[in-house]
Write a structure and sequence with these properties.
This protein is α/β, with parallel strands linked by helices. The chain has helices at residues 27-51, 54-80, 94-123, 130-152, 158-187, 191-219, 229-238, 272-287, 309-318, 368-374, 402-416, 428-437, 458-465, 477-487, 496-503, 523-527, 531-546, 565-574, 595-605, and strands at 244-254, 257-266, 291-298, 322-333, 336-346, 353-357, 379-383, 421-426, 444-450, 507-510, 513-516, 552-557, 578-583. Strands 4-5-7-6-8-9-12-13 form an 8-stranded mixed sheet, with helices on both faces. It starts with 26 loop residues before the first helix and ends with a helix.
Length: 606
């Protein structure tokens, strides 16, 4: 059936604003330039032959290639106006970029020939008729100025700009030939002809390479040069209702018209129209993308029309493996809803799940090295506790406390769809784990508590108060990282590469200033604790700790100022499910980026 169904190419409400049949530049501009260039190239070629001038020959050669380039550009624009067809559903807009690419290749070849010929003339000088060169070059200069002005009126088309590069090369060639003619008439110095030819070739080389790179990048379906792919992905993740983004692609269907496709994970399909509207507005306003095709995927939903659902789920899940991908879970607080980000490593089909929760001012990326090492045996999940990293900020800072964090973790594990997890908690993450594990019917199977206990030493509280929420702003990232490394020096001795992996993600740039990734207001509840509240909190934590009936490993930094050896000894006495280990030469808290520390975690969770 050969009939064309035009409805397939039609755009309706919600589709991109442009037509696939691209609005191209005025063809009359190229036609005028072609006639002028082609007409004068014959005149200049004959004059160059009789004058024996390389500068004039190079200019005439430019003119000939310009005529071909302009003809090719004109043909490309005629082709690009053709409407979409059953065999070319996007239309023929790429013809312009193809023409620009071919024109640039031809221009490069011409530049090489002129430079080789010019160098040879240094060894074998040719006599040049200066008067003829001067007169013809002057006429050619005027003609090239007219053609360049005509083409410069269309600044949008890469195809026209590629043709303009040819014409600008001619214009410079005419200037060089004019100068050469004048110098030869006045001084008789013939090498000026070759020298100026080389100079002109070098001047046009940069523009030619730029057009070549741009057209090649477009033809290879690269991300448009003015669009930041990573920023697009991050902005999509921040759209309310979006849980995760994957299989994202950004490219240009035709020059100046970017397009985007991808998969969006959401919680409820009935929210998709509103989410899609928000996405369309964001992509157009922030990135200039209006041709958007996104496939919604409901987390945990099984297609009711799929046969052998369980078999298909197992096959599909077994092929997926994450390497630090970011997802989101919707949580609630007394002030409303918020999203918590979490980063995952390994296969989501793995029933063994390890949840790693960071300290007070840290984020889930702390566990990157550990997660990579554990991801063969576990599906490793590393959340950014609310107020940190990629998670939302809370309106009421007094909600930055363990009860809210525990509730968020319960939402996370519910979204993961598992009934049992292992827990790795560093500092604050250990406190969250202890409270969570004390709740009846909790999902925690075994827990590693990294350098924290029910009692926190006053010296550590004073140290934390000296930097948590305090001003931290640097114009240079290296200076910010150096300062952060000093703050975290108690974590142990690390190489610069290890510090970059561990502390690099803690730094974010905003308005040209490097600062910390977390909401400074996380310090508000921390600073409001008085001695009476601290004692009450300690008593509550001891009570919770005694209610835990799962295997626990207490890891203490040998020089820790937060968890004392005495507290560890008491923890082992009051709970028979606990064993402990001390890592010498480390303060608060062991970072678990060293091989021997990772081996310790592997042994405990195996």
């Amino acid at each position: 059936m050969n009939a064309v169904d035009h409805s397939l190419h039609a755009h309706k409400k919600g589709d991109a604003k442009h037509s696939h049949s691209k609005e191209v530049s005025n063809q009359n501009l190229l036609l005028i330039a072609l006639v002028l260039t082609l007409g004068f190239s014959g005149v200049e070629g004959a004059a160059a032959y009789f004058a024996n001038s390389l500068a004039l020959i190079s200019d005439a050669g430019h003119m000939v290639t310009d005529a071909a380039a302009l003809g090719l550009a004109l043909l490309a624009q005629i082709i690009s106006r053709r409407p979409p067809s059953p065999k070319h559903s996007f239309g023929f807009g790429r013809a312009e970029a193809l023409a620009a690419f071919v024109n640039s290749i031809v221009m490069l070849a011409l530049v090489v020939w002129i430079m080789v010929e010019a160098i040879s003339r240094f060894y074998d000088p040719h006599k040049v008729d200066g008067l003829t060169v001067t007169v013809v070059a002057a006429i050619g200069l005027v003609m090239n100025i007219v053609v360049a002005w005509v083409l410069s009126r269309d600044k949008r088309s890469v195809n026209t700009r590629a043709a303009l590069v040819h014409v600008m090369g001619d214009l410079l060639g005419s200037v060089a030939a004019l100068i050469a003619g004048v110098v030869i008439q006045l001084t008789g110095w013939m090498p000026i002809d070759a020298i100026l030819s080389i100079l002109v070739s070098l001047l046009i080389l940069k523009s030619t390479i730029s057009i070549l790179h741009e057209s090649y990048h477009f033809l290879m379906e690269g991300v448009p040069l003015h669009i930041d792919y990573l920023a697009v992905g991050n902005d999509l993740k921040k759209v309310p209702g979006v849980l995760a983004v994957h299989d994202l692609h950004v490219w240009e269907m035709t020059p100046s018209f970017p397009a985007l496709i991808g998969h969006i994970e959401i919680e409820r399909i009935n929210e998709w129209p509103e989410i899609m509207d928000r996405i369309n507005v964001m992509l157009l306003d922030k990135h200039g993308i209006d041709h958007v095709t996104l496939q919604p995927e409901v987390v945990g939903e099984v297609d009711e029309h799929t046969h052998d659902e369980h078999l298909n789920d197992k096959v599909n899940a077994s092929t997926v493996r994450h390497e630090g991908d970011t997802f989101y879970v919707n949580c609630s607080s007394p002030d409303g809803s918020h999203r918590m980000a979490y980063h995952v490593w390994g296969s989501p089909s793995n029933p063994k799940v390890l949840v790693c929760v960071h300290g007070l001012t840290r984020r889930g990326s702390d566990f990157k090295t550990l997660a990579e090492a554990m991801s063969k045996e576990y599906y490793v999940v590393c959340p950014d506790v609310v107020g940190r990293g990629d998670s939302d900020r809370l309106k009421n800072p007094m909600l930055y406390a363990v009860p809210q964090y525990v509730a968020d973790m319960a939402c996370l594990i519910k979204q993961l769809g598992v009934t049992q997890v292992d827990w790795f908690g560093t500092s604050m993450g250990g406190l969250i784990g202890m409270v969570y594990a004390s709740i009846p019917n909790n999902p925690i199977r075994r827990m590693l508590i990294n350098d924290v206990g029910p009692r926190i030493e006053p010296e550590a509280i004073k140290r934390l108060g000296s930097y948590v929420g305090q001003p931290f702003a640097f114009s240079n990232r290296a200076d910010a990282l150096e300062r952060l490394n000093v703050i975290c020096s108690s974590f142990g001795t690390h190489t610069p590469e290890e510090w970059e992996i561990y502390n690099g993600p803690m730094l974010v740039q905003k308005d040209g200033v490097w600062g910390m990734h977390y909401d400074p207001d996380i310090a508000v509840p921390f600073a409001s604790v008085n001695p009476i509240m601290a004692k009450a909190g300690e008593m509550a934590m001891w009570h919770a700790f005694k209610q835990i009936h799962i295997p626990m490993l207490i890891v203490r930094g040998g020089d820790s100022d937060l968890l004392s050896a005495k507290t560890v000894e008491e923890m082992c006495k009051v709970n028979p499910h606990v064993r402990s280990i001390e890592i010498p030469g480390v303060g608060h808290a062991p970072a678990f980026v060293k091989a021997e520390q990772i081996a310790l975690a592997k042994e405990f969770f195996s």
